[in-house]
Hints:
By secondary structure, this protein is α/β, with parallel strands linked by helices. It folds into 2 domains: 15-148, serine acetyltransferase, domain 1 (Orthogonal Bundle); 155-270, Hexapeptide repeat proteins (UDP N-Acetylglucosamine Acyltransferase, domain 1, 3 Solenoid). The protein has 9 helices and 15 strands. It has helices spanning 15-30, 35-43, 48-60, 67-80, 82-98, 106-111, 113-129, 133-147, 259-262; strands at residues 149-151, 156-157, 162-163, 169-171, 176-177, 182-183, 188-190, 202-203, 208-209, 214-216, 220-221, 226-227, 232-233, 241-244, 249-253. The strands form 3 sheets. It has a 6-stranded mixed beta sheet. Strands 1-4-7-10-13 form a 5-stranded parallel beta sheet. The chain has a 4-stranded parallel beta sheet with strand order 2-5-8-11, with no helix packed on it.
Amino acid sequence: MAQPSVSASVTGIDPVWSQITEEAHKMCVDEPRLAGLVHASVLTRRNFEDALSYRLGQKLASGEMTEGLVREIFAEAHAADPKLGRAARADAVAVYERDPACHRLIQPLMFFKGFQALQAYRIARRLWEQGRCDMAYFLQMRTSEVFGVDIHPGARVGQGIMIDHAHSVVIGETAVVGDNVSMLHSVTLGGTGKEDGDRHPKIGDGVLIGAGAAVLGNITVGHCSRIAAGSVVLEPVPPCKTVAGVPARIVGEAGCDQPAQSMNHLLEYDA
């Protein structure tokens, strides 16, 4: 089946949702014991936004806030801001295209905590922008507890984002992440001490951040650069470069035009 385009219109014909519902029917046939979950999460939902709200209500509910209340918060946000649904579709397609473990578009919605945590962050971010900081902090807390991903609602994150495996990802309050970025587990976009104000990294478009990498301080990582796994980045990174090490140093070019899409983590050191 052809992969849907991120740029495809989501008003009227929605190729992302159409593919997910087709895959949901097949999942019910292949694994009947999941049919109830799939029907409730996808096949009885009106659209992708409704499915997201339902699924995340299931995941984030607790004794402190019921599934219905969480779902209501998400549904209200999606109804008021169509950009949330467009960003979620772009994120889902990014996972589908870049993660070799993702074979169906339904998987991020149903099973992948990186995608689910990112959509929860997006709602928290909207609440933060509305001045509803306490509810935003509550969603941040629950997202961290459930998914092991801690994204401050004050951070600004673009679309077309893939967070692979996603365990122990931390993104600080004043961090900025551009569009079409890929990162793996245990990535930290953090500060360097107790300073207040603008203190977190600014990640350009198309950047690839390897597992266990830490980017610290109010520094810029240029577009389409690569940060090798386990690196600690303390200085700005120019566009289209590869950095590696502790502390990280430039070790070569990025290797291709779009490292976040190619997902190539192999280092080719310049002589």
